[in-house]
Amino acid sequence: MADNVNNPWHYNQAGIECIDAIKASLDDNYQDYCKGNVMKYLWRYRLKGKPNEDIGKALFYLKEIERILKDE
């Protein structure tokens, strides 16, 4: 079954996950990227017609921030 929150197929090309490429290119700014995505998904969760998916995506990025803070 497809997981459009944690592992969307359309974010993988040639075996490279888009999120991994973003982390590598942003380095220390990745946390700010995650914060912006949390805001984006919370902003639109009632508007797009897939509220559970958008809330799930916001939670994904919150967990990324939590992981970053634990690693510091």
Topology as H/E string? EEHHH
SS elements, strand count = 2
Strand order of the largest sheet: 1-2
Helix content: 55-70%
| Poorly predicted segments | none
Number of helices: 3
Which sheet architecture does the biggest sheet show? 2 strands, antiparallel
Give the terminus-to-terminus CA distance: 35 Å
> Shape from CA axes?
globular
Q: Which structural class is indicated by helix and strand composition?
A: mainly alpha
Could you explain how this protein is built, in words?
There is one protein chain. This protein is 62% helix and 6% strand. The chain has helices at residues 18-26, 30-44, 51-71; strands at residues 12-13, 16-17. A two-stranded antiparallel sheet has the order 1-2. The N and C termini lie far apart (35 Å). The mean pLDDT is 92.
In short, what is this structure?
By secondary structure, the protein is mostly helical.
Descriptors for this entry?
single chain, 72 residues, mainly alpha, two-stranded antiparallel sheet, 3 helices
Helix-strand blueprint:
Elements lengths: L11 E2 L2 E2 H9 L3 H15 L6 H21 L1
Antiparallel strand pairs: 1-2
